[in-house]
Amino acid sequence: MNKPLKSDIELFVIEKVKEKREQFNLSQSELAVKLDVSNGFIGQVESTKYPAKYNLNHLNKLSKIFDCSPKEFLPENYY
Prior knowledge:
The chain has helices spanning 8-23, 28-35, 41-46, 56-65. It has 79 residues and is mainly alpha-helical. The chain has one domain (8-66): lambda repressor-like DNA-binding domains (434 Repressor (Amino-terminal Domain)), CATH 1.10.260. The relative contact order is 0.21.
């Protein structure tokens, strides 16, 4: 059996970022520009077909973009 490309906690973080992106009415491309990543990066992160994911530097920058705490992207308890 193949190992999943993203862990449960990584998927949790990705979903939280996607919720914020949609709440702010940003397209994947618009968020990529604000985050200073390639145009396709956000799409790859949000897809389960690619191993791309956010790192701590991304989360820090996302918290500035969305004017929130980086904690908002993480679960309250361990996963």
